[in-house]
Design a protein that fits this description.
It is a single chain. The protein has 346 residues and is an alpha/beta fold. The protein contains 12 helices and 14 strands. It has 3 domains: 11-61, 434 Repressor (Amino-terminal Domain), CATH 1.10.260; 73-170 and 299-330, 3-Layer(aba) Sandwich (Rossmann fold); 172-297, Response regulator (Rossmann fold), CATH 3.40.50.2300. Helix content is 41%, strand content 19%. The chain has a 6-stranded parallel β-sheet, sandwiched between helices. Strands 9-8-10-11 form a 4-stranded parallel β-sheet, sandwiched between helices. A two-stranded antiparallel ribbon has the order 1-2. Helix 1 (11-18) packs across helix 3 (37-50). It holds the Pfam family LacI. Keywords: DNA-binding, Transcription, Transcription regulation.
Length: 346
């Protein structure tokens, strides 16, 4: 017997009538191949009988299959995209969401911030987007908690333990430990580590804190150099590196590595002969030709997981709220280039 039509059926109604979970219905609607043919047919028939229209995006029935149409919008709040990391993340998120049938409404966080992140989120929400992705390490956690209670929201590329906040993040603690272990294995026992306030960049703060902690566990003498207020290469090289006798500098990211490299070269110091350098991101053009020693962030996988999660949340096929928010970390990998080598003999 065909299910009784419902004037406003939901994905829960479809799941109950088909005898499957809402996540299975969601997979059928988005054309996921990991569904048995019999199940796919049953769900498709129930969708037709109930007259259900997927809320995640406009979808149309063609030849017995459901395809994403692309009539609705998602919001994206992203950090300044002059960064290679955020530029790449922005491109990949846009592609992923459009492939899933959504238009993307974007606001960009620039610094110093003339407009607060909360205002930018309000601007996005005012356009009646179905869900929001936040890809910025500087948005305060209380703001994320508040907005997560209003609209499906996923934090991208930063860890966030705030209650009710979904996040897909780089595994920054593992990245920091990997860099510390590599420098120690090369023989460095006195290093400088660039650090940053968590309010400025939570992900970078977590990575550098893990690097410092692991290096000290290994018996390495660490000098922390705070770059929150700016990156003064002259001060870093002349006062800190030379003043401490450090043989390596762990830079916050690859662009800062290049800046320090230029500063060292201007003073007649070689890399890695006199000072070794490490970075993070691994997305700078020519990273392989330059031989940067860095952590390659898994930006492709981050964009894929975050994009799919927000679409599932919007469509009602996301995780059970009783299970708590989704918090997933994705490890990067160490690129052992030529900017880090054994310390010089002194």
């Amino acid at each position: 017997m065909s299910p009784t039509p419902n004037p406003r059926p939901t994905i829960t109604d479809v799941a109950a009538a088909a005898g499957v979970s809402t996540s299975t219905v969601s997979r059928v609607l988005r054309g996921d191949g990991r569904v048995a043919d019999a199940t796919r047919t049953r769900v498709t028939e129930v969708v037709r009988d109930l007259g259900y229209v997927p809320t995640a995006a406009a979808r149309s029935m063609r030849g017995g299959s459901l395809r994403t149409g692309g009539g609705e919008s998602l919001g994206l709040l992203i950090r300044n995209i002059d960064s290679p990391y955020y530029a790449r993340l922005n491109l990949l998120l846009q592609k992923r969401l459009r492939a899933r049938g959504f238009h993307v409404v974007q606001e960009t966080v620039v610094g110093p911030h003339p407009v607060s992140e909360e205002e930018l989120l309000a601007n996005i929400a005012s356009l009646r987007v179905r869900g929001i992705l936040v890809a910025s390490g500087s948005v305060p956690s209380p703001v994320l908690v508040e907005w997560s209670s209003r609209v499906p929201l996923v934090v991208v590329a930063r860890p966030d333990p705030s209650p009710g906040v979904h996040c897909i993040a780089n595994d920054e603690p593992a990245n920091g430990r990997a860099l510390a272990g590599h420098l120690h294995a090369l023989g460095h026992r006195r290093i400088v580590v660039e650090v940053v306030d968590p309010a400025h960049s939570l992900g970078s703060h977590v990575r550098s804190a893990a690097l410092v902690a692991r290096a000290r566990e290994l018996g390495v003498e660490v000098t922390e150099y705070d770059v929150t207020a700016g990156h003064d290469v002259d001060d870093l090289v002349d006062r800190v590196v030379r003043g401490t006798g450090a043989t390596a500098v762990a830079c916050l990211h690859d662009r800062l590595l290049l800046a320090v490299w230029r500063g060292l070269r201007a003073r007649g110091l070689s890399v890695p002969g006199d000072v070794s350098l490490t970075g993070s991101d691994g997305l700078t053009d020519g990273v392989d030709l330059l031989g940067l020693t860095t952590v390659r962030q898994p930006v492709e996988r981050i964009a894929e997981l975050a994009g799919d999660l927000v679409v599932d949340l919007v469509g009602g096929g996301g995780p059970d709220p009783a299970d708590g928010p989704v918090r997933r970390t994705v490890p990067g990998w160490l690129l052992t280039g030529t900017t880090a080598g054994p310390p010089p003999r002194r």
